[in-house]
Design a protein that fits this description.
Length: about 325
């Protein structure tokens, strides 16, 4: 079913069975990581362009690596070193890449809807690598993959997302993906940062962290995105840490097998203490590794339509 899509923009309209197809494809991709030569010819002759108009460490480098491991040609453009600083538009930049032969355009942009806008105006497949506070579907998928790999099926798993839910594209993508897989989704944070409409979708909202942590299978801890907030929504980082930060005492409320997750970048000592981030429940580094596998899976599913699975061998 995934192969019928030109673009991949969000998880809102991706049914559970299609999410599972991506996770299973990512698992096949992850097998490649253990080989001495971590490269397959699957996307040889295809061209992937990474257009990053916002900073990124994990997403940009893992799309780069994913494309290279599949043997695609890769071009990377960042806002500060491109002709965007001379006034060129996003669409003109993307079209310039398209006429050079781009098959897939991966885009990160501060405007919600930027990826959809490109998808409507390009023949190339468009993959959303984060658009404003709207969606970050590959992050949602790699988080879900990590839970699935560690704990099995998502159906009825209790997953808590803590932090600035209102401004988080990571939260939104996790929520849609998890709901489509039948998980119970909880969110917790200051009431000013919890969108009211969330309860209508079946998400449980909490403003007290100790209640929210009760009986969860995984807690995904978000960074406070001060760069996306209007003033007045958030008292201080010190108060946030006191009320919502995940420290050892709060971690000890979790059941034995529960996972501690963070999409990164972390602000140690604010939303998560270092001893928790580096502790035995944390799967934060595994999330990063899984991000490469998920991005390989999506590039393959979008660009490798005529390529068969056997080519992964
Ligand atoms: N999680 C995430 O999107 O990280 P980067 O901003 O470093 O890509």
């Amino acid at each position: 079913m995934l192969k019928q899509r030109k673009d991949f923009l969000g998880l809102y309209d991706v049914p559970g069975e299609d999410i599972m197809e991506i996770l299973q494809t990512a698992r096949s991709m992850k097998d490649i990581f253990t080989r001495s030569i971590k490269k397959v010819p699957t996307l040889r002759g295809k061209t992937v362009v990474n257009l990053f108009f916002e900073p990124s460490t994990r997403t940009k480098s893992s799309f780069d690596l994913a494309a290279k491991r599949l043997s695609a040609d890769v071009m990377s453009i960042s806002k500060s070193s491109s002709s965007v600083v001379k006034g060129e538009t996003l669409l003109d930049t993307a079209r310039t890449m398209e006429v050079m032969g781009a098959d897939i355009v991966v885009v990160r942009h501060s405007h919600p809807g930027a990826a959809r806008y490109l998808a409507k105006n390009l023949k190339a497949a468009v993959l959303n690598a984060g658009d404003g506070a709207h969606a970050h579907p590959t992050q949602g998928l790699l988080d879900i993959y990590t839970i699935w790999e560690k704990l099995g099926e998502l159906q009825d798993k209790k997953i808590l997302i803590v932090g600035d839910i209102a401004h988080s594209r990571v939260a939104r993508s996790n929520i849609w993906g998890l709901l489509n897989l039948g998980a119970e989704v909880r969110v917790c944070g200051p009431s000013t940062l919890l969108p009211r409409q969330l309860e209508e979708t079946g998400v449980k909202t909490y403003t007290k962290i100790d209640e929210a942590l009760d009986d969860v299978d995984a807690v995904n801890i978000l960074r406070i995105q001060l760069e996306r907030q209007e003033s007045g929504l958030f008292p201080s980082l010190r108060e946030y840490r006191f009320l919502f930060g995940i420290n050892e005492a709060r971690q000890s409320r979790l059941k034995d097998e529960a996972l501690v997750m963070h999409p990164g970048p972390m602000n140690r000592g604010v939303e998560i203490e270092s001893s928790v981030a580096d502790g035995k429940r944390a799967v934060i580094t595994e999330q990063v590794t899984n991000g490469v596998a998920i991005r390989m899976a999506l590039l393959y599913l979008l660009a490798g339509k005529e390529v068969q699975y056997e080519n992964l061998a």
